[in-house]
Design brief:
By secondary structure, this protein is α+β, with helices and mostly antiparallel strands. It has 13 helices and 26 strands. α11 links the parallel β24 and β25. α7 packs across α12 and α8 packs antiparallel against α10.
């Protein structure tokens, strides 16, 4: 029998169940679209029903295990999008999930603005409804039914562990995204609990990546804690201190790996935990790849990504400028507006691919803006950055990023599934298996592209409209 690892990857738009082997290869994978619901009183308040997700997850898991019955599963693990949580009631039931797209915290954020400096100093993240503290607080105050009592919560990745093992815990890398965790000291913060009026008894035990949460099934297969998808991607590409990693996925984090805590008085970055002695300084272009996927689905549904890439390559200019990224870190802003600016009059050559071309350029420009901002906080002298995530499967996008930031983009093995690969590496270390490092990488060289550089300057002009105006 061959040996493998069962990995759950619960993203924002889609979730996946995968089997990986000891070399990091993904042997089999099944995916499905995540279903969300909206509160009737607030269109920003999104949620999911854990039982619905769990049924789909377990079904896909059974089908995958059946397809690859020749594999003996050595360990089970999970990673997920950050900032989402699942709440547990007095019966021990996971009864509601509050994902990262849930912004109900805006209902109560004004009350806590006076504590914003302290929140950033301790949590490494500026006060924002994206993070779990405000979601949880607002849900408890404004949405919780009288017959329910919240006795605990966990991240979405460790929620799967809870369902499979009965043990409630949270990964360090997920705890740091709650705004209740001291990211420098690696512990729940009493000061943050006081600020957000949170009871200590509902806080889950914190597990380091690689620790065993519990055991699954009669076979007693260990469920090994991994954690947040961005941190797992950093592990997956084998990044070292001083490296900068660009993750091009649903969102686009740009992170620098450091071995000392950092506090930025201007609050231009986030400070994330990986493990003790290892942190990430992060800027983030916000929603990027999801914009590309959404436009393709709604306007180019019958075209493959390869075909779209070919059509974009045929374009010798930009007919319009797109701005759909949702984050502007220098201003600590989440952008709610975006759009497409076209030249007037409308060219007879203008078509849907021109918009797709501009959306791809928007991703490259958003990443470039936030990479340059990261350099102001933490200098980066290496001639390369490390790229990972599905976005780098596009040669055009990779080339545009390399050219705009004027750095080589190094794509390690399994770069497109870096989070899954990171989980597999952690499982191997826990089980004392040798971890194979592959020398083979793909390198995207920067090039001089005057048209793209001119586009970036025009994009910045358009972007400032959305940075400064709300409507």
């Amino acid at each position: 029998m061959k040996e493998g690892y069962l990995v759950f990857d619960l993203g924002t738009g889609n979730s996946r169940v995968a089997i990986g082997d000891e070399t990091g290869n993904i042997i089999g994978i099944r995916s499905f679209e995540n279903i969300y619901h909206q509160e009737s009183r607030n269109p920003e308040a999104k949620y999911f029903i854990p039982k619905e997700w769990l049924q789909k997850i377990l079904l896909e898991m059974k089908l995958l295990l059946s397809d690859f019955s020749q594999y003996t599963i050595r360990a089970v693990t999970a990673t997920s999008a950050r900032e989402g949580i699942v709440l547990v009631d007095q019966r021990g039931s996971a009864f509601i999930g509050l994902p990262n797209i849930d912004k109900r915290g805006n209902e109560r954020i004004k009350k806590y603005q006076q504590y914003s400096k302290d929140v950033y100093r301790l949590s490494g993240h500026w006060l924002d409804p994206l993070f779990s503290a405000l979601k949880l607080l607002t849900y408890k105050e404004n949405y919780l039914s009288k017959e329910k009592t919240i006795i605990g919560f966990t991240s979405i990745s460790e929620w799967i562990g809870y369902e499979l093992t009965g043990k409630l815990g949270i990964a360090e890398s997920q705890a740091c995204e709650t705004q209740l965790y001291d990211t420098k000291e690696f512990k729940w913060s009493e000061e943050l609990m006081d600020i957000f009026e949170m009871e200590e008894k509902i806080l889950p035990d914190v597990y380091a990546a690689g620790e065993v949460l519990g055991y699954v099934g009669e076979e007693k297969i260990p469920f090994i804690v991994c954690g947040a998808d961005t941190q797992m991607a950093v592990e997956g590409v084998g990044a070292k201190a001083g490296d900068v990693i660009i993750v091009s996925g649903t969102t686009s984090p740009i992170v620098a790996v450091v071995e000392e805590p950092l506090y930025d008085e201007d609050e231009r970055c986030w400070f994330d935990c990986v493990k003790k002695g290892r942190w990430l300084i992060e800027t983030n272009a916000g929603t990027t790849g999801l914009n590309y996927q959404t436009y393709r689905k709604n306007f180019l549904g019958n075209k493959s990504y390869k075909e779209i890439e070919h059509k974009i390559a045929e374009k010798n200019n930009f007919q319009c400028i797109a701005s759909f990224g949702t984050k502007f870190f220098p201003g600590k802003k989440s952008l709610k507006q975006g759009g497409v600016f076209s030249y007037a009059p409308l060219s007879v050559e203008f078509d849907r691919i021109d918009v797709m071309n501009a959306i791809m350029a928007d991703i490259a420009c958003g990443i470039t803006l936030h990479y340059r901002e990261l350099q102001k906080i933490k200098s980066h002298d290496k001639k390369y950055v490390i790229g990972c995530g599905g976005g780098f499967q596009s040669q055009t996008l990779g080339k545009r990023i390399a050219s705009l930031i004027n750095k080589e983009v190094v794509l390690p093995p399994h770069y497109e599934q870096a989070s899954l690969n990171g989980c597999i590496k952690i499982c191997q270390k826990t089980l004392k298996k040798s971890v194979e490092d592959h020398d083979h990488v793909r390198i995207i060289e920067p090039g001089e592209d005057i048209l793209l550089e001119e586009y970036y300057e025009k994009w910045r002009t358009v972007r400032k409209i959305y940075e400064e105006v709300e409507f």
